[in-house]
Amino acid sequence: MARMLLSAPVARIQVLPETLSNQIAAGEVIERPAAVVKELVENSLDAGAARIEIALLDGGRKLVRVTDDGSGMSREDAALSLQRHATSKLRTKDDLFAVRSYGFRGEALPSMAAVSRFSLLTCERGASHGTRIEVEGGRAGEPRDAGAPPGTTVEVHDLFWNVPARRKFLKRAQAEQAQCIDAVLRLALPRPDVTFVVREGERPIAQLQSGPQDAVLPARAAEALGREVRGHLHEVRSETRGLKLRGLAVAPQVDFGSARNVWLFVNGRAIRDRSLTHAVLRAYGEVLPHGRFPGAILFLEVPLAEVDVNVHPAKAEVRLADPRAAWDAVQMALQPLLRHEPRVAESHAAYGSHQPELLPQAKSLRYLGQLHASYLVCESEQGLVLVDQHAAHERINYQRLRAAARGPVQPMLVPQVVELSAADAARIAGARETLRSLGIEIEHFGENSVAVKALPPPLQGGLLGPLLADLAEGLTRVDDDLFKRAACHASVRAHDALTPQEAQALLDALDQTDYGARCAHGRPVVAAFSTAEIERRFGRDYAPHSHAAPKEIL
Ligand code: ADP
Ligand code: MG
C-alpha cells in the first residue's frame, strides 16, 4: 500500500472542478423546486420586473419556468451570470451591509444549472434580438441569438436528473407545488407593486394582481392564510426605538393547527425567526385554545445598519442588533387587537389536584348556569362541578368521529363546494385518501375548489374550509391527531353562550363518553370541588353543626 502511494504521487488537495463545486453549492441553495422558484423570482424582482409568471409542471419537479418583464441581460452578462460568484448586485464589502437587493451571492443560476437541464432566454429593452444559453448538468453551450420580448425567461427542467440521491428526496407533485406557491407568496406579500401569476401546466393556480397596498395585501393574505380569514383581518402597527412594524393579524376567532401561518418579513424579506414567531404566539397567549396557533403577516422595518442579512445561504434568517426592540414592537402592535378578548383557560395544573377521585356519575349532575360563557356550572351529590364546554364537546366529537370512521360513509344530500387557497387545495388533493379513511369524501371541482360529497355527522354544519385546510396540513396517515383536529373544529368554543337546553344536551352527550379522561388535546374536561373542600374554604369544617354561627357573634 505504502509503496503504491509513494510510486504514484498525487496532490492530495485539489481545486474542485467548477461543475462539481457548483453541484455542492446547489446542495445548500437549491433543495427543491420551491427553492428554484424563490431564486428565480428574486432575480426577476431585482431586475425591476412588474409582472412575473411562474409555470410549473409536476409541482416543479419536471419544470420551473419563470418569465419576467425586467431589465434583461446583454449577451456578455448572460454568459457571466452563469459563472459562480458573478453578480451585478455587490461590488464592495460595504455593499454587503447595505444590501437592498434579494440576491448578492451570485450563486443561484450556476447552482441550479449544475443540477438540471437549464435554459436562459434574455433580451435587453431596445435590443434588436436576445440571447439564449442552454446548460445541461453544468456544461454550458454557446450563447446564441434568439428572438425574445424584453425581459428574461429561465427554465429549469428535470431538477436533480444527474443527482439521483437528491431527486429521491423530492416529495409528491402536490406537496412540491404547495411549497412553490408558498415561496411565491413569501416574495409577493411585500410587493403589491408587482403582479404574480402561478400556473401548473395551463391552469392558473394563483393570480396576484398588483395594485394599491391597502387593496392588495388583504387579497394576498387570504391566499397565504386561507380564504376563511376574510373579514377577520385587522391592520396592526407599532413603532419603537427606530423599528417600525405594520401588517395584518387574524382575529383570534380564527385559529390554525400550526405556527406556519405566522409570516414574518424584515425589510421586505421573508425570514424565519424563532424569537419573533414566539413573540407573536405570546401576544395571542391563552386567547387561543390550547394547541391552536394564530395567523399574522407582519412587516418589520429596521435601519439597514441594524440588521445582518448574510447569515444564511438562502437568506432565510437575519440577525438583528436589537432583538428585544423587535419583540416589543410585535407585542405593541398586537395588543390593541387582543386586549379586549377574554382569556380562555387558566393554568391547567390548577385543575389537576381537584380532578381524579371526585368525578361525578352521569350525572347526578344538575345544571346551574354558565360561567364566563366557557364553563358549565353544575351541582353534584358530592359538591360543585365545572365542565369546560369546549373540552367536553371536543371529547364527545372525538369519540363520535372514531366511531363514524369505522362505519359506512355518510354521503351528503347536496355536495358542498369549498373554495380553498391554492396551497391548501394542493395539500387537500394530496390528502384525499387520508380524508376518505376519516369518512370525508372530496372531489376536485375546478380551480382551487373541492366538492365535499360525504362527511361524518359530527362534522356536518361546521365551516368546511378551515376544517379541510387544517386536516390536510402535514398529515399523511390516519392517526389520532387527525381525529383530534377534526373534533376540535366541530366543537363549541369557549365564549359561546349556550342555552340551558344546549348545555344539558352537552352534559347528556358527555354521559355517553369516557369523559373522565381528558379532552382530545390532553386538557381536563371536568373539575370537581367536593362539599368538604367548599366547607373548609368557608370555615365550616370545625364545628359538627357548622351551619350555626360562631358563638362570639351571638
Ligand atoms: P445573484 O442574484 O446573487 O446576483 P444569481 O446567480 O441569482 O446571483 O444571478 C447572477 C446575475 O445574473 C445577477 O446578479 C443578475 O445580474 C443576472 N440576472 C439573473 N437573473 C436575472 C433576470 N431575471 N433579469 C436580469 N438579470 C438577471
Ligand atoms: Mg439571485
What report would you give on this structure?
- This protein has 554 residues and is of the alpha+beta class.
- The chain folds into three domains: 18-208, Histidine kinase-like ATPase, C-terminal domain (Heat Shock Protein 90, 2-Layer Sandwich); 213-340, Ribosomal Protein S5, domain 2 (2-Layer Sandwich); 344-532, Ribosomal Protein S8, Chain: A, domain 1.
- Strands 1, 2, 3, 4, 5, 6, 7, 8 and 9 form a nine-stranded mixed sheet that branches. It has a five-stranded mixed sheet with strand order 10-11-14-12-13. Strands 17-18-19-23 form a four-stranded antiparallel sheet.
- Helix 14 (422-430) packs across helix 16.
- The longest helix has 18 residues, at 389-406.
- The chain starts with a helix and ends in a 17-residue tail after the last helix.
- The structure holds adenosine-5'-diphosphate and magnesium ion.
- Adenosine-5'-diphosphate is lined by residues 39, 43-44, 47, 68, 70-73, 81, 86-89, 103-109, 152.
Topology diagram in text:
Layout: H1 2-7, H2 18-29, H3 33-46, E1 51-57, E2 63-68, H4 75-81, H5 93-96, H6 108-114, E3 117-123, E4 130-136, E5 139-140, E6 144-146, E7 151-157, H7 164-167, H8 173-188, E8 195-200, E9 203-208, H9 213-225, E10 233-240, E11 243-250, E12 262-266, E13 269-271, H10 274-284, E14 296-301, E15 307-308, E16 319-320, H11 323-338, H12 349-352, E17 366-371, E18 375-380, E19 383-388, H13 389-406, E20 411-419, H14 422-430, H15 432-436, E21 441-444, E22 449-454, H16 464-472, H17 480-489, H18 500-511, E23 526-530, H19 531-537
Parallel strand pairs: 1-8, 12-14
Antiparallel strand pairs: 1-2, 2-7, 3-4, 3-7, 4-5, 4-6, 8-9, 10-11, 11-14, 12-13, 15-16, 17-18, 18-19, 19-23, 20-22, 21-22
Helix pairs in contact: 2-6, 3-8, 8-14, 10-11, 13-17, 13-18, 14-16, 16-17
The chain binds adenosine-5'-diphosphate and magnesium ion.
The site of adenosine-5'-diphosphate has 22 residues, from helix 3 and helix 6.
